[in-house]
Recover the amino acids of this structure.
């Protein structure tokens, strides 16, 4: 078994490009998609039609919004932007009123409307208080300061929280794409490291090994352990890269995340063994694994959260997809803070799938003597 | 040393090997001949313990290899027809890998690698990766791998397929040397009759899963000792001409290949004049007529109705 592992390792050192390529592509994709998603604030053009708005709290309140970025433009540019569909909505801000220019009725429009109305309400309240005090400029300034101070240090604070239920989805694009692409690309890496078993069988190397005193289980174990290690090394590199280089902290669950990848990688090794047993040659294997990996990623929630999938058929298919459980484990431990008991179910399913697939795969290979 | 007793192998409804009996004595080189599909590879797979027969038994030193394959595998070396090597590794790394598989370790392994590299003549190219080798060099390394554990029995399945004449000669000499100097018993299959004639003490001929002849070269040749062969080459052949030859009373057998006909007749028969007359009558232009004593190739053709390379 050691001889098999050493030979495979030598092969990897001599041809590391596929491994490095898959790892690199995965990091780049997760970076592009994750960080883009992370910073994707909708942009809404605004026109300031009254000078008084510029120095008022309206603009400050709007600029503090996290989900929408308000950008000041000329009126012509705003209309053009909405007309061309570059912006769903634009706003013209006057001293006491505002006007929305709507291109498409959407949830963004009502959000923008709410935000601007809120900003005007707060501004109006302030103005009312100031008017109530009187016209003295000095008093007005002092009051402004006092209101600001009071806003920063309220007499009492209200904490808001929401219930999370089974139906509640937590979405963080960086985790979605790091997990998704990590689990997706490891399918290729593992599969292409199991494929040599098929090639060795076709080229007679496998028979040569059988005709040596080495035990057959050691031959299978050597190949599977190597494929597992390579697959695991890849996700280890990818996750470590985001953890150490980009400071993605996995919500403090980095070691647990790495540990919980083990059942998933094991199942992918098993799946590759099964596929190797089913196909007749490497061409078929290449075609199959390409289609299978993409389907698994789509149905398993690697490209987008599985929670947004509505088709019952696809949801049913996802239940026999190892990637679904891999994503569930990773999201569970990082985003939802699942306990060990809660993770037991997807981990068990993966281990069961892996064991069955290895058993069936090896049985088929031996029966067909491929 | 090696004995096959009533070996049969059935795939679905077809027998690849049927009731095969064969033996090999220590120190012999035995040839196994047969056209494509004769069952040679299946027979070799069975006697190398790779495939279990449907019926029969294989003994090595009077012990069943089917019941105890591991001990047999320790003393048997197999040279498969395919180049069963890791192309990304060097010759030395390949030998080291297979040496470890055969549980040879440390200094002993290093010594065996060097010895084998000397035998197969690749000592000066040992650091080069196999994929840069010529076909002949790969074939030599393919043999080398089977020699690492100093086997008592070497089973070689067409080890010279697809290589140049020089490499072929080198391999034949190596096989001869292994047998002579190291007393390795060798089973050799080939498509080249001259290789078998040059190397082997005894020959088995298979066709359609059956052993159809067995014996020393002389014994096999004696099958056609009372006959001679007439090899006719013609510009074209017609069915009436072939039919006339086949039904001619003095002709024992006729084998047709492309534009060549081999006619077997008794030694005392003179067919030359009649042959010319028959060709004239059929408007066939004869290019050459060659009369010779039958060779092993003729015997093979006579027994199987096919040339060895068919």
């Amino acid at each position: 078994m050691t001889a098999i592992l050493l030979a495979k390792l030598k092969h990897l050192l001599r041809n590391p490009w596929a491994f490095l390529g898959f790892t690199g592509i995965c990091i780049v994709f997760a970076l592009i998609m994750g960080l883009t998603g992370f910073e994707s604030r909708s942009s809404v053009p605004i026109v300031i039609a009254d000078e008084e708005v510029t120095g008022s709290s309206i603009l400050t309140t709007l600029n503090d919004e996290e989900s929408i970025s308000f950008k000041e433009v000329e009126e012509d540019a705003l209309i053009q932007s909405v007309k061309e569909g570059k912006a769903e909505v634009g706003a013209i801000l006057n001293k006491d009123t505002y006007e929305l220019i709507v291109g498409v009725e959407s949830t963004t429009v009502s959000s923008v409307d709410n935000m601007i109305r809120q900003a005007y309400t707060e501004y109006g309240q302030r103005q009312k208080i100031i008017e109530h005090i009187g016209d003295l400029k000095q008093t007005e300034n002092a009051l402004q300061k006092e209101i600001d101070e009071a806003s920063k240090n309220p007499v009492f604070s209200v904490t808001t929280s929401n219930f999370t239920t089974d139906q509640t989805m937590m979405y963080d694009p960086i985790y979605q794409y790091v997990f998704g692409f990590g689990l997706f690309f490891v399918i290729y890496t593992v599969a292409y490291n199991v494929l040599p078993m098929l090639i060795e069988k076709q080229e007679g190397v496998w028979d040569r090994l059988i005709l040596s005193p080495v035990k057959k289980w050691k031959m299978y174990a050597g190949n599977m352990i190597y494929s597992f290690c390579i697959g695991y090394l890849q996700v280890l590199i990818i996750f470590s890269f985001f953890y150490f280089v980009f400071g993605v902290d996995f919500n403090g669950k980095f070691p647990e995340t790495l540990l919980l990848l083990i059942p998933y990688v094991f199942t992918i090794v098993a799946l590759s063994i099964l596929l190797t047993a089913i196909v007749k040659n490497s061409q078929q294997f290449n075609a199959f694994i390409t289609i299978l990996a993409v389907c698994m990623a789509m149905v398993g929630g690697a490209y987008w959260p599985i929670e947004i999938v509505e088709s019952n058929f696809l949801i049913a298919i996802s239940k026999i997809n190892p990637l679904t459980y891999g994503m569930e484990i990773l999201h569970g431990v990082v985003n939802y803070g699942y306990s060990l008991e809660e993770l037991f179910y997807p981990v068990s399913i993966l281990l069961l799938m892996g064991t069955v697939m290895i058993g069936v795969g090896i049985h088929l290979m031996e029966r067909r003597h491929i | 040393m090696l004995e096959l007793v009533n070996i049969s192998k059935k795939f679905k409804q077809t027998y690849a090997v049927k009731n095969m009996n064969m033996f090999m004595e220590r120190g012999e080189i035995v040839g196994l001949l047969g056209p494509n599909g004769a069952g040679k590879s299946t027979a070799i797979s069975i006697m190398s313990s790779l495939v279990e027969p449907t019926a029969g038994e294989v003994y090595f030193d009077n012990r069943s290899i089917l019941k105890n394959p591991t001990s047999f595998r320790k003393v048997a070396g197999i040279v498969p027809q395919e180049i069963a090597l890791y192309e990304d590794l060097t010759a030395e790394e390949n030998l080291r890998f297979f040496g470890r598989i055969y549980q040879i370790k440390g200094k002993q392994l290093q010594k065996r690698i060097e010895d084998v590299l000397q035998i197969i003549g690749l000592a000066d190219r040992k650091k080069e990766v196999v994929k840069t080798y010529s076909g002949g060099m790969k074939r030599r390394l393919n043999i080398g791998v089977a020699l690492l554990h100093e086997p008592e029995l070497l089973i070689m399945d067409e080890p010279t397929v697809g290589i140049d004449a020089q490499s072929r000669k080198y391999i034949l000499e190596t096989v001869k040397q292994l047998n002579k100097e190291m007393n390795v018993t060798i089973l050799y299959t080939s498509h080249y009759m001259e290789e078998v004639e040059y190397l082997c003490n005894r020959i088995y001929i298979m066709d359609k899963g059956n052993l159809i002849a067995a014996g020393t070269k002389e014994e096999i040749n004696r099958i056609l000792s009372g006959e001679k062969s007439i090899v006719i080459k013609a510009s074209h052949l017609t069915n009436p001409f072939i039919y006339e030859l086949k039904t001619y009373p003095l002709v024992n057998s006729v084998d047709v290949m492309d534009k060549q006909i081999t006619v077997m007749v008794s030694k005392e028969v003179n067919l030359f004049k009649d042959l010319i007359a028959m060709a004239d009558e059929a408007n066939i232009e004869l290019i050459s007529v060659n009369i010779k004593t039958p060779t092993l190739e003729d015997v093979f053709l006579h027994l199987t109705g096919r040339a060895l390379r068919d």
Observations:
- Chain B touches chain A at residues 48-51, 70, 73-74, 76, 78, 80-86, 88-89, 93, 97-98, 100-103, 129, 145 (CB under 8 Å).
- DSSP finds eleven helices and 14 strands in chain B.
